[in-house]
Amino acid sequence: MIQALPRTATYLCSLAAVLAFLAFPALAAAQNADTIFDDAGELSDAEERQVQQAFDAAGEESGQPLYAFLAPETGVAANDGAAQRELLTQEARDENLPQDAGVVFVAPDDGWVQSGNLDGVSEQEVYEAMIPDFRDGDFAAGLVAGAGEIRGEPVAAGDGSAAAGGLPGGGLLLFLVAAVGAFLLFRNRRANRRRAEEERRAAEEEFAGLTTRLDEFDGKERLVSGYLEAQRPLLDQRTEAWVEQKISDARTAGFAREFNDAAPILTSNPAAASRKMENGRVLLEGALQDLAEAEKTMDDYRAADEALDGKLRAAKEEIRAAEAAEQAARSEGVAAERLDLNPEFDRLAREAADRAARREEFDPRENLAAVEALTRRARDRRRALREEAAAREALPDERHAAEGALVRAGETLKAYERSHQRALDGFGPAALEDVPSPDELSSGLLHAEGCMDRADRAASAGRFAEARSLLREATGLARNVMDTPGRLKAAVAAADRKKREGEEKLNELEARLAQAKANEHLMDPYQRQRLRDYEYQLGNARYGFFGGDWLTALLLFEALDNDYMYMGDPSMYSGDGFGDDWGGGDFGGGDFGGGDFGGGDF
């Protein structure tokens, strides 16, 4: 078992004792019966004893219990007397402070002090006695001076500005007299106790969960170790060593050390303890994974050993069935070569039979995998022979179908040649680039005829499945030829539609050009040159359209239709650049001569 676990248990017990003590902070307070509570950490031990003695003496003389508190940051502003009184009254009631207690409360971080319910003494005088030392940062001396004022001892006069001054650091110091003396410290003390209780509960829950996981690991480790001892006679040396290493890795994973280191600092340094606990949990999960892998390996090993004999029998039956199928296929003219699986089977069977004497090197998992592969080969052989028999039966019908498809494809090709030539004459090669040419289809038919010849030779040799595959390839090529006229028809329809659209676009562009030329007298030389360039480009497009390269011309039509170089800002066409729109409208009585030149299609 893991040697670090007892140390973990020791630390857990120690931590439980510490947490139990922290759960009852009142016990610690009761042991000292302190009336000085320095939660702000401003007093040393010696200073706290000095202030304690001074307040005890003042309390004995006045007959009134006195308390002094130095609180950390309260969150109450120094100038918010109403909030202080309301809060302190509620805190005093919550903490059951004696009704006759006199209190002095100092909030160094917030810069204010409060005293209340001091019998027989001016609280203003007590305040003035304390403030000079407080302003110097000497809170022990200030509290002793306040206790002396309560006892009636003379106090050296301080700075006249003390009553209106503040604590060191610029904080405003105000004097407040509460009807019921109390301090915000009580709220801080209660919050601290709540936090301590929450941390204690969290620690207890965390350690409870940790203990559960450690118990789980302990049980798993015992189970796997016992499993290994039971399986040693079965395991080969390599697998046995691998399992032992996995168990050893789990035992020495180091999670116990992390938990042991975390236990004593869980309350003093919870952040560091949390990191160690997290590291320990990760290591523990890894150790459990190692044990699970070791257990699974032994399960697989045992299952393979138990299944091996049955798998050998099944393999032998499959081999015999494959041999019988070979004999039947050869009798029917199938070219079935003998697939002799018996030598390999005999070797595997001998190894399995001798495994008890060869435990040091025999792995039943490897032997089982080889037997299953042999079984699959025999089964695949039977399936291939069944396919050969089926092909032999279907071959006559499929050959007849292939021959008919080739005849129809030849007839289709002759008609296609004429249709393709008419399409070329009418629309050019660019319009037919997505459909095959007659030469391509003719080459496909020649290949189909070759498939027919090879299929006949394969059938004569008894390779019926191969012959069937070749016949199907020939049929597919023939069908491709027969489907091509439909593709040609669709391409011609698309080309015809585009050509008609091109003619309409050319007429539209020429009409716009004529309208623009009618306004040429309004153009400046630069604009006239641009108009000449446009006319030249349109002439080239017209020549290409009627010269056979009509698809390229369509692209140029589209570019000219989207050319805005003659329109743009209408002011650029006016006589002075700022007047009317070049010819009394949008470029010549409308959108460039009454059309859409520049503002629409052009």
From TrEMBL:
Residues 1-28 form the signal peptide. InterPro entries: TPM_dom. The keyword Coiled coil applies. The chain crosses the membrane at residues 167-186. Pfam families: TPM_phosphatase. Keywords: Coiled coil, Membrane, Signal, Transmembrane, Transmembrane helix. Residues 186-213, 284-332, 492-519 form a coiled coil. Gene3D superfamilies: 3.10.310.50. It comes from the Bacteria. The keyword Zinc does not apply. Residues 37-150 form the TPM domain. This is TPM domain-containing protein. It comes from Rubrobacter tropicus.
